[in-house]
Design a protein that fits this description.
five-stranded parallel sheet, 18 strands, alpha/beta, Rossmann fold, 35% helix
Amino acid sequence: MHNYRIESLTTGRTFKDVFTGEGFLLLDPTHSDEAFIRTVYPKKSKIHLNREDFSRYEEFLPTNRPLAKSSRSATYHAIELGDALGLSNLFITVSGYVPDRSSAYITGSFKECEAMSVLARMPDSMKTQTLVVASAGNTARAFAYASELYKQPTIIVIPERNSSALWSPHKNTQFTRVLHIQGGDYFDAIRAATVICSLEGFFPEGGAKNIARRDGMGTTMHEAISYIGAIPQHYFQAVGSGTGAIAAFEAVERRIARDMQDSDKRCTLHLSQNSPFTLLVDSWATRKRNLIQYSDSLERKHSAEILAPVLANRKPVYSITGGVFDVLQKTNGHMYAINNTEAVTAKKLFEQTEGYDIDPAAAVAFASLKQAISQKTIQASDTCMVNITGAGYRIAHDAYDIHEIPPHWVLPVEKIERHILETMLSE
């Protein structure tokens, strides 16, 4: 729908978006080094602030068909909350079902802006194949909702223990099928999804390598910049894969390139994880590109202990060119480890002050703001943006008739094998 091009971060060359029988273009096909590709939009691209839905960002999205009707993220000056923390310029960007704050994502999180952008990137010809999405919860819910709107056949792979996060306002999901991984975690869901994508007729959503996913999440930063009238000095978000933080960085780079101002400014990234699962925190502490390696058993143990399971990603996009290491380094960023008690305390303060519920990952992000204040990595007058990535679940459940999405298949983790999955999916 728009005249965008794709740029290789390795070679700098630009090229058109193409679609093959294997699905999305995720890497530069002419270069062997693995590095992100990035979308390049015309300099005249703008945010349509007169629109109150997701289409206000469409000129910064790689769309090949119209955007389905969806809400948007919204930014506001959190004066009372800022006063409680001693901050004069605290801004909250909320992505959730909080109509009073102008954000009404029915699925309750910023994963909905990812899903809408990914589905809009696909040409109609790809409907003959099945999209495969691995998720720890919020992404699954968003893609289930978006796939019904776009009538796109989709298989969602999710750990059985996270299945309560998979619900929909649709009573019957005609285009979405669900595979529960019994006894596994998010890493196992990714492993099963990878095997499925090796079968004929299935293609991967692509995760962080999908430009549409990052650009969809980048709309939260576009929203904040438009509302504040400047690039925020500090950006706070809890991370699992780190995709959202990369998206925020890329959005800032685009605004600098478009406006040709504030070129000496780089919004500092403040990223957090829920301890004891702190793979990214520990890796960044070394200031080396290599991701620290922990044992499978230890990572499984830690992922089961945290309040925010969506943050337990054992394959974050850290080392890849354009990944978490690079964006933290370029912004002089910080990382924080937030334990469950700190997250619960932060959640209570936020909800009491702001009047709506937030999910555990958002509570981790808010707790990291409190930690940054105590560590003096921010000043009282600095402009700070906190990305509240999920909120208003209780409000949404009161407003809509919500339905759980039952599994079509249940697969024990020890049976993730090609021949078993092939037989299961053919039944």
